[in-house]
Amino acid sequence: PDEYLLSLKFLFGSSATQALDLVDRQSITLISSPSGRRVYQVLGSSGKTYTCLASCHYCSCPAFAFSVLRKSDSILCKHLLAVYLSQVMRTCQQLSVSDKQLTDILLMEKKQEP
Amino acid sequence: MAETLKRVLSRGGAAWSREENNPAAGPPLLLLGAPGSGKTTLLFAAALEAAGEGQGPVLFLTRRPFQSLPRGTGTALDPMRLQKIRFQYPPSTRELFWLLSSAHEAPGPAPSLLLLDGLEEYLAEDPEPQKAAYLTALLLDTAAHFSHRLGLGRDCGLMVALQTQEEADSGDFLHLALLQRYFPAQCWLQPDAPGPGEHGLRACLEPGGLGPRTEWWVTFRSDGEMMIAPWPTQAGDPSSGKGSSSAGQP
């Protein structure tokens, strides 16, 4: 309903709209491997893919590094918000990969330049 | 993890009571202290505690093998417990990333406790804040995955030791502020009125969540044995602890 939308906008400002846009475009993928380990990938509006950890607050995007970690003027980025919204709306894309592939995804994130 | 450390510290003094002996690991804990403040000894004591009866293996990550095993905390070194501690020595930040990223590929039962000593050395290799955040987040994620594998409401604890500098430069400060966001529970080891032939520390545990802050008095005997007593002001027995003259709260 509209009141939820207004609350989201009140709390998260323009991130709320952008995050809902990401959800609408089904940009969030929950990747899991047979081990049960999981990670989220979000296809950003720029066409770049960012990795969000499923267990704790982390996104590989520059906004998370700058506004959340360094400046502390946001509590999350639009990608993390999109992940949380898609979790409650149950609209994630699902992708199964091998355990080895999941390792590569987690490792690749480290190599990604900020 | 805070609960495990609390059990370790509480065991040394009369304040230890059975009712606190629940198997929950508690929130992820950051152990902070200057060089030589006993961080490794406490980590090792926590490892032995978590390797107790009926509990899963413990994974202890540290950059290099111990020259000698730290002396106990009053309890004898039980070989059965020692066997349940698996040491791994990632020599570089890159290796540590690899180890954590591939933790779900490792065979065998999931650990009930994940320990990392000397986080500052790994962070120093690549001081970029986002890398530090990712390394920290990956530690939490690895512990969360182990918890998932343990199942049945059992959690894998996480305890990480970070060396703090006397003079905090801005880079360290940034790291610390960042780490504190990921670790709800923290334990500070602060030097306090050293006596002759031994050094004393105040161990201050902020368990995170709603639990009260608790303090202990930690001393190292000349043979390396770690002695723990409740901090006098809250134990209700000032004679049990040394240095009661400096017992004022900060």
Give a concise summary.
The complex is a heterodimer of chains A (114) and B (250). Chain A is of the alpha+beta class.
Report what the structure shows.
Chain A is an alpha+beta fold and 114 residues long. Chain A has one domain (9-97). Chain A is built from five helices and four strands. The model of chain A has no long low-confidence stretch (mean pLDDT 90). Chain B has 250 residues and is of the alpha/beta class. Chain B has a single domain, classed as 3-Layer(aba) Sandwich (Rossmann fold). Chain B has helices at 2-11, 39-50, 79-83, 93-101, 119-125, 129-150, 170-182, 232-235, and strands at 29-33, 58-61, 85-88, 113-116, 157-163, 185-191, 199-206, 214-220, 226-230. Chain B has a nine-stranded mixed β-sheet with strand order 3-2-4-5-1-6-7-8-9, sandwiched between helices.
Secondary structure blueprint with pairings:
The complex is a heterodimer of chains A (114) and B (250).
Chain A: H1 2-12, H2 14-24, E1 28-32, E2 38-43, E3 49-53, H3 62-70, H4 78-89, E4 93-96, H5 99-111
Parallel strand pairs in A: 1-4
Antiparallel strand pairs in A: 1-2, 2-3
Helix pairs in contact in A: 1-2, 2-4
Chain B: H1 2-11, E1 29-33, H2 39-50, E2 58-61, H3 79-83, E3 85-88, H4 93-101, E4 113-116, H5 119-125, H6 129-150, E5 157-163, H7 170-182, E6 185-191, E7 199-206, E8 214-220, E9 226-230, H8 232-235
Parallel strand pairs in B: 1-5, 1-6, 2-3, 2-4, 4-5
Antiparallel strand pairs in B: 6-7, 7-8, 8-9
